[in-house]
Predict the structure.
Amino acid sequence: MEIILKPVITEKMTAISEKYNRYGFLVNRNANKLQIKEAVEQQYGVSVSAVNTMIHGGKARQRYTKTGIQRGRTNSFKKAIVTLMEGDTIDFYSSI
């Protein structure tokens, strides 16, 4: 089971990471905080002090087409905010 799906790189998350040394990841829905902590430490070689998780439900969407109204939902996902120890950082842009 893959724990970390991808990092969250947005303006808001970048500001939080610079100010509080916290990084966001989209994670597997079944992963718990201990598994997320181990996966981040192993993948990035840093020390994790705290993990906060949240599950975002999908939004209802609709659009008007020639055949009528199309209704659906976006996918739900689980997000983890990982706080690192003092002095540790993760550079997402080094591999680009």
